[in-house]
Amino acid sequence: MALALLFGVVPLTLGLIAFAEAAWTYHGLTTITRLGARYASTHCFEDSSGQNVVSWLTDLNNPALPAFPDRQQLAGGGIQITVHYWTHDPDQGSIPVACNASCSAECVPDSVTVSVGTDNPGTYQFNRFLASLGVPAIQLPAFSTTVPMESGVDPN
After folding, report:
1. Are 111 and 148 within 8 A, CB to CB?
2. Maximum distance among all alpha carbons in the chain?
3. How big is the CA angle at 140 (ends 118 and 117), to the nearest 5 degrees?
4. Which of 94, 104, 113, 87 lies closest to 46, judged by CA?
5. Taking the CB of residue 135, how many other CB atoms lie within 10 A of it?
């Protein structure tokens, strides 16, 4: 009975804990892309890299962001966030915004995409609990959310 418990139930329990943490992280990262895209679409277009959006998403004191196991890596740069602003052209499709970034009516993008880990897919691997079990890290997929701009000239 003790051997069945040691070799059956304990590994299963540890595997469930590791899976739950990975699912929690997956959910947290997808929520971050949605919240970042919403924030970018309702705030002023300041620069083509979306530094104001990245700063908002990496603020550990931001109560709007979800808690998840590797949130410290988000603030420390271990989880890469990219922001792309787009202009929609009927002939060329979506093209990057080609105007000087400023908070003015002359330069308002049509949409914004916030991504986690798409420029360099190897930037984030989930291994929080798995490393202690001797299991290799899990490469989580890239996440991105694209929404139309709702604002662009209001700096607040």
Report:
1. yes
2. 74
3. 20
4. 104
5. 13
The Cβ of residue 22 has, within 10 Å, a number of other Cβ atoms equal to 18
Task: Look up residue 119 and give its amino acid.
Answer: D
Q: Per-residue pLDDT tens for 2-42?
A: 777 677 787 788 888 888 888 888 898 899 999 999 999 98
Q: Which two tokens stand for residue 81?
A: 């966030």
Question: How many Å separate Cα 150 from the centre of its chain?
Answer: 20
Q: Say how far apart CA 111 and CA 149 lie, in whole Å.
A: 5
SS3 22: helix
CA–CA gap between residue 20 and residue 99 (Å, rounded): 44
* Residue whose entry in the numeric block shows the structure tokens 């330069």: 107
- Record the tokens describing residue 17, joined without a space: 């804990």
**d(C-alpha 6, C-alpha 1), whole Å:** 9
Q: What residues contact residue 139 under an 8 Å CB cut-off, 6+ apart?
A: 121, 122, 125, 126
Question: pLDDT per residue over 95-147, tens digit each?
Answer: 888 776 666 667 788 899 999 875 565 567 777 776 777 778 777 778 899 99
pTM, rounded to two decimals: 0.80
The dihedral of CA 71, 152, 51, 155: what is its sign? negative
Residue given tokens 């499709």 in the structure block:
93
